[in-house]
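How a chain folds remains the central question behind the approach discussed here. This step matters because it turns folding into a mapping between discrete strings. The sequence in question and its structure tokens are set out directly beneath this paragraph.
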Amino acid sequence: MRDLLPTLNEWSTDDPLVAIATVVGTSGSTPRPMGARLLVSRDGRMAGSVSGGCLESAVVLEAQATIAGDAPPRLLHYGISDEMGWAVGLSCGGEVDIFVETLEGDGSDPVIEEVRRAIETSRPVALLTALDGENAGNRAAATADGGLVGSLGGASTVAEAVAAARPRIASGLPGVEEISGMRVFVDPIVPSPQLVVIGAVHIAVALTTMARAAGFTVSVIDPRTAFNNIERIPDAERLVTAWPDEALPHFELGPRDAAVCLAHDPKFEDPALSALLRTETGYIGAIGSRGTHAKRVARLHEAGFTDADIARIHSPVGLDLGAATPEEIAIAILAEIVAVRRGRNAGSLSAAPAATAG
């Protein structure tokens, strides 16, 4: 929805009623993931994609029938044949569920307006849509602070809707939840997660580049301007030349965000870790050997932190990849950040059980 908002705003000046098709379920090999959307105007203009091309024409016809009032909001099921799959670069077919509905882009829909405001102010929000039954097409917007705009109908309550949205907002992953016997698609629309790197060392140069490519908003904190500058670290969005305890209070870090201390010096890492442990930052990492970490733990105990507090720190930092070079260490760190954020143990995919949709 974030990517389609400018188009929705533009089209609504001519005709506020549009149709939107959303991928709400996938099975097997499919060209577009859950949450992919296609916006369709009354005159046939399209923005976005739900299939990479192989289903678009059929979905556009269904969307225009919905705009015309000839069909209600509904769930469509498509099997992507091998031949269709090859057309979009896949070697085998799959199945996809697409929900088609209309929305008003002129400001008259309070749910869409809440989503629009959240996007424009970089606040997390989840768009909830009832998929079947008499309430199909009912929408609500759940905010991270527990608010709800709109209603899913039926016996659903605000508390149930917010509870279903909360973990999706935290993970950033869309999916279908059951709320009061209804299947509801929960689509989190969240700002990019933050990664704060403390210490503008060589590993930070590689880590900022990789993390930015992975969709993080990256900041580097280091008071040493000879190290912390745009020539050395061109891919960081923010370079903060200050001590960690001075800089970190100005960051709003939450469960989706990460921070890594790459400075081996206690005068860097102790203030940084002390500040981070007082926040809800989802991932806190610190470079160093087990011996280094044991000394760090002792200092943090002396500073008043409990075993539970200190257990939040990932150290030695990163997954056990056998990394040796700064670039390999950066890969290991970023991989662990992603695994923790997604709630995975980071084992080999070849040894993992088959994934299920949702």
In short: Residues 50 and 56 are 7 Å apart (CA to CA).
